[in-house]
Every structure is written in C-alpha cells, then in structure tokens.
Automatic annotation (TrEMBL):
The chain crosses the membrane at residues 450-467. The lineage of its organism: Bacteria, Pseudomonadati, Bacteroidota, Flavobacteriia, Flavobacteriales. The keyword Transmembrane applies. Gene3D superfamilies: NAD(P)-binding Rossmann-like Domain. Keywords: Membrane, Transmembrane, Transmembrane helix. Residues 7-146 form the NAD(P)-binding domain. One of its GO terms (molecular function) is protein-containing complex binding. It comes from the Bacteria. The keyword Ligase does not apply. This is DUF2867 domain-containing protein. SUPFAM superfamilies: NAD(P)-binding Rossmann-fold domains.
Length: 473
C-alpha cells in the first residue's frame, strides 16, 4: 500500500515509519520542513517526502493522488495553552480538503481516551478532531490511548525526572486519578494492524495496557523497576497553576505542556472498550514491562524519537531556514580558532556536544545558566539530547536548537532558545585543518548590548577552554 504519514517527524511518526517500511509499504512522509526529518540515509532513500503545513491554505498543499491510506498524527498541545484546540481543528479541516483529490480509503487517527462527560481542553480537542475527520472523504479508524510509556515519550520522561530527582514527594491530589498506561510498542502494533483492516473502518476503539493505576502507583512502579524506594504524600492545596510550575521546575517538560497535562490529569483515562484487542489478538505489556523496555532502549542508545525535539517546545516559530543565515551586521561576535591534527576525532567531539557529555568546559557554569534560564521561563538544560552522537537539523540540544548538521562540510550550527534580549548562534566548523568556533549575538536594543558585555568575561575563558578541549584527541 501507498501510505501518507503525517507528523512523520513526531514521536509516534518516527516510531511507526521503519515498521511500515519493514512491512513492505510505500511511505510518503508529510513534514513542514524536509531538513527536519531525522532519519538516516538508508531510510530516506526508501521514502518520498512532501513539505506541508496543515495550518496553511489547503489549496496550496499537494500530496500524491494515488495514496491508499493515511496516518493522522498531528497534535499541537506543546505549542500553546490557549488556542491549541483551534489549531488542531483547523489542521484537521485542511487535511480533509487536501485528501479530497486522492484515492485514500482509510485514515488512522491516534486520539485520547474520552470517557468523562466533562473533558479537559486537551481531550475535548482530540474528540473534536475525530468528529472533523469523520466528515472527510474516507473511512476513519480512531485509536484512543491514554498515557503512552516508552523511551522519549513525555509521560515517561516526566515520571523518570520525578522519581530520579525526588525520593520524597509532596504531590497534588490528582496523583490519585486512575489511568491505563500502554507501552509504545503496543501502540505501534495497534496502529499497524488496523491498516487496511475493513472491520475497523468507521469505528473508534480504546486501547490500553493490562494495568489500571493511579499516577501515584505509576511513580511507585517506576521506582520498583529501577530498584529503589520513594515516598509520596498528597496534599489538596496545589492549584493547577502551582502543579504546572511544580512539573516545570522538577521535570524536563515545558510549561505549556505541563499546563495541558495537569488539566488532563484530573480526568480518569481508562479503556472501556476492549473490542480491538480481542479482534486483533494483541497481548499488551504491563506498565512495569513497558518501563523496563524503555530503559533497554536507553541503555543501548536506541531511542528513535523524543517529544523534546518538537519545534513547538522551543523558541523557533518559523522554518529553520529563517534562522540558518547567521547575520553579519549589527551583531557582536566571539571568534576563536585552533589548528587540529586529527579532523576525524575532533569532528566526533563536535557531534557529541551537549546533553550528558556536557560542553567540554565549565559544565557547572552551563548548569547555572540553564537554571537561571528556567527561572524566567526558558527551557534550561532540561531537554538534553536524544542520541549521544547523532544530530539532525531541528533537534533540541539543551537550550539550543540544531539549525544545520552537515557532515560533508563538517559544520554544526546552533540557535539559542534560552531567554535572552536578542538572538544567538553558536557555530563549529572544520576547514583546512583548523577548527573554527563562532558565537554570534544580535542584541535587541541597549538591554541586549548590556547583556552581551555582562557575560563577556565568562565567554573569554569558557569559550576559549571549550575549543581547546574539543580539539584534544
């Protein structure tokens, strides 16, 4: 079958893409920016790519007319706390219009479990998208899931941060809300097995793992798998706003996502309809098995995708191309260079920068800068990096965003997503046996210039030692 995969660069899209290729399908990946499709050359050679923004005029967007089915994996929850529901509705309407001129027979949508009369804004939006898709010129199969547990998922990373950082927790009462987590590999199995299955056309199904747990149970279950104990005490006084700040400062989540998650965590999310599991004969993994499987992926450096790499989680609101040309005028720069002996090994050092490997000098100063950034609403160093030595354009890298990662020209270009009174770029390049390192800052007014000169003394020894340590092999 020929399949249109929307959200191909998202958490679910990156997981299902290799599975669809292994099944022998022809896949067309729909992404806003082709350069952001974080796949290696082997996979890229097997797929077609179309650049589409489903929030733009649908008459300007085109997809192949001969597609047989499509996955709708477009969500906007990390982009806003106010109008993400409007964006999701508009994207779904545009999607329907774009597919009117194709031969698409089935659209598969991953939604959220909706079994409360009073839904959170997040779940209400998912339900509204379902209703919009059902009006499209195709048959729809909707899979409704709750908490998805897997390496790189927002739920897993939040639970991981809470348990690893806080052995004793004072938590809001929503930790007593019941939910039904499901392993990411089970979600992928459901998504692929309903493809082309006419028994599922025009229907919505709940999917979940075998365990019904409170969020408190999930925190304890994580600690059990990891081999330590934690103590959790609940209090009834944490408002949604305080709860969101609590998640934001303790975990790797963004404040926008924290707000939307807290809003949803007040609702019970339990799979009431198990027809699909029986129909397909799928045996799902327990919550503790899902945690164990996630850590096996992490330990083997096999994390395919992470929610943290979403562009919506950072500062960039346009295409990467709008930032990739580093300005030359009206900027302040710190330029350094050093001759190198072994280009291959130095290049490896550049590609490993950030995350757990750190920044080659003064990591405690970088951590302080990250903490200060988080205090004023920036990402801080919470995002780390998805893979220890692989980088793709669009990836999050601590409080930077990767604009360019070109192995041929041996060039890495980063854009700062920290809160600053201006715009900042950091570039590394190897050319003719010399390593060049350039920090560029375009200040906004007097405040921006005062900021640059206030941190200049730190730049003198941080950036100087950083390039020297990168050059060491």
């Amino acid at each position: 079958m020929k399949i249109l995969l929307t959200g191909a660069n998202g958490y679910i899209g990156m997981r299902i893409l290799p599975k669809l290729l292994d099944m022998g399908h022809s896949v067309v990946c729909a992404v806003r920016d082709e350069k952001r499709l974080s796949v290696d050359a082997k996979i890229r050679s097997k797929i077609d790519i179309v650049e589409i923004d489903f929030l733009d005029d649908p008459e300007k967007q085109q997809v192949p007319k001969d597609i047989d089915a499509a996955y709708y994996l477009i969500h906007s929850m990390t982009s806003s706390v106010t109008d993400f529901d409007e964006k999701e509705a508009q994207a779904a309407k545009n999607f329907n219009m774009i597919l009117e001129n194709t031969q698409c027979q089935q659209v598969i949508y991953l939604s959220g479990i909706v079994n409360d009369k009073e839904l959170s804004k997040h779940l209400s939006s998912r339900k509204n998208v379902e209703e919009i898709l059902y009006k499209g010129p195709f048959d729809v199969t909707v899979l409704r899931a709750g908490i998805i547990v897997g390496s790189g998922s927002s739920s897993f990373e939040i639970i991981r941060d809470l348990c690893e950082k806080l052995p004793i927790m004072i938590t809001p009462k929503w930790v007593l809300t019941k939910t039904q987590p499901i392993a990411i590999r089970d979600v992928i199995q459901f998504l692929t097995e309903v493809l082309g299955n006419k028994e599922t056309y025009g229907q919505s199904f709940d999917i979940g793992g075998p365990d019904i747990l409170t969020y408190k149970d999930m925190l304890h279950g994580y600690a059990k798998v990891r081999g330590f104990k934690n103590w959790i005490f609940t209090v009834p006084v944490m408002t949604p706003k305080l709860s969101s700040y609590w998640l934001y400062f303790v975990t790797s989540t963004s404040y926008k996502l924290a707000m939307n998650l807290v809003d949803s965590m007040k609702m019970e999310v339990i799979a009431e309809d198990n027809r699909l599991q029986k129909m397909l004969g799928i045996e799902t993994h327990s919550y503790e098995e899902a945690i164990d499987l996630a850590f096996k992926k992490i330990e083997q450096n096999l994390v395919i995708s992470s929610w943290k790499d979403s562009i919506a989680s950072g500062r960039i609101k346009k295409d990467l191309e709008d930032y990739i040309q580093v300005p030359k005028y009206g900027v302040l720069q710190d330029k350094k260079s050093t001759p190198i002996q072994n280009e291959k090994e130095v290049f490896k050092n550049i590609w490993r920068i950030g995350g757990a490997n750190g920044w080659y000098y003064g990591n405690w100063l970088w951590k302080i800068r990250g903490f200060l950034d988080k205090l004023v609403g920036g990402p801080g160093l919470r995002r780390g990096r998805t893979h220890p030595d692989k980088i793709f354009p669009g990836d999050a890298l601590d409080f930077w965003r990767v604009l360019l990662a070109d192995k041929k020209s041996k060039r890495l270009l980063l854009f700062a997503e920290m809160k600053t009174p201006g715009e900042a770029w950091l570039e590394f390049k190897i050319e003719d046996g010399v390593l060049y390192q350039t920090a560029t800052f375009r200040p906004k007014g007097l405040l921006g210039r005062l900021y640059w000169y206030s941190v200049l003394p730190f730049h003198l020894f941080i950036f100087g030692n950083m390039i020297r340590n990168i050059a060491k092999v």
